[in-house]
Amino acid sequence: MSGFTAGVIVFPGSNCDRDAANAWKELGCGEAKLLWHQSTDLQNVDIVIVPGGFSYGDALRAGAIARFAPIMDEVAKFAAGGGLVMGICNGFQILCEAGLLPGALARNEGLKFVCKHVDLRVETTNSPFTSACEKDATLSIPIAHGEGRYVCTPEMHAQLVDEDRILFRYASDNPNGSQDDIAGVLGGPRRNVMGMMPHPERAVRVGLGSADGACMFQSILATLTQAQV
Questions:
Q1: What are residue 150's DSSP bridge partners?
Q2: What does the DSSP 8-state code read for residue 41?
Q3: Sequence-separated (6 or more) residues with CB below 8 Å from residue 68
Q4: How far, CA to CA in Å, does 112 sit from each of 109, 166, 171?
Q5: Would strands 138-145 and 193-196 be described as parallel, antiparallel, or unpaired?
Q6: 89 pLDDT band (50/70/90 cuts)?
Q7: Which residues lie below 8 Å from residue 3, measured CB to CB, with a gap of 6+?
Q8: pLDDT tens sequence across 136-169
Q9: pLDDT computed for residue 2 by the predictor
Q10: H or E stretch including 167?
Q11: What are the backbone angles phi and psi of residue 63, rounded to the nearest 5°?
Q12: In percent, how much of the chain has pLDDT > 90?
């Protein structure tokens, strides 16, 4: 298969790994490999996707155990070298727990699991993950989480704003009480690590309720293609 290879990490309790792999392949981005959490080999992938689910049953708190999985050391090295890392929902929680992204994800306001489509506003297109999106565009993307309330220190929030590292905000209804309506952020030495609570891999064709998530995968494909030139 032509294109690029995505490595999708599989933890005990992951439930969106196949969705992410299927979205990558369906959109013509290339091959997807499922990488077991105990592995220490990323198999020369071009991007790592840390998918949604309930890794290790969300014991202690979401992502708290998964961040110690052997493969996460390799993900950290990959990210430090500029490799693209995409964390979705539980993946966002894991990347925050691992220190690859700033802030933390806390229990939703109201302490209830929330599952529905929400409107996201694209806050920046200066990223490998949104370069093919339109700034200030509204995207309809589903959420499904119980610990999605983004929080960080005032100092970190100011830094995120100053450095244009807030990727998405909830556009109309903040479903979990996230600080400053934040739904996704950027990190890494080259703005190469991202995390978001909504699920773009569940919104890649109209039959799923929305195709708005496709622009993120198209952005990644364009970034990887440009890097090859």
A1: 105
A2: -
A3: none
A4: 7, 25, 20
A5: unpaired
A6: very high
A7: 28, 29, 30, 31, 221
A8: 999 999 999 999 999 999 999 999 999 999 999 9
A9: 64
A10: strand 166-170
A11: 85, -10
A12: 95
CA triplet 11, 128, 209: central angle to 5 degrees? Answer: 65
Q: Is 213 helix (H, G, I), strand (E, B) or coil?
A: coil
Kindly state the tokens that stand for 110.
């109201």
pLDDT digits (tens, 9 = 90+) for 196-222: 999 999 999 999 899 999 999 999 999
Alpha-carbon gap, residue 162 to 227, rounded angstroms: 27
What are the contacts of 188-192 at 24+ separation with CB within 8 A?
188/79, 188/80, 188/82, 188/85, 188/100, 189/79, 189/80, 189/82, 190/82, 191/126, 191/127, 191/128, 191/165, 192/79, 192/82, 192/83, 192/84, 192/85, 192/128
Q: Which residues pair with 169 in a beta bridge?
A: 121, 182
For residue 57, the model assigns a pLDDT of: 93
- Asked if 39 and 33 touch (Cβ cutoff 8 Å), the reply is no
User: Mean pLDDT across the stretch 181-193?
Assistant: 98
Q: Active-site positions? A: 89, 199, 201
Contact 128, 186 (CB under 8 A): no
Q: Quote the pLDDT of residue 36.
A: 98
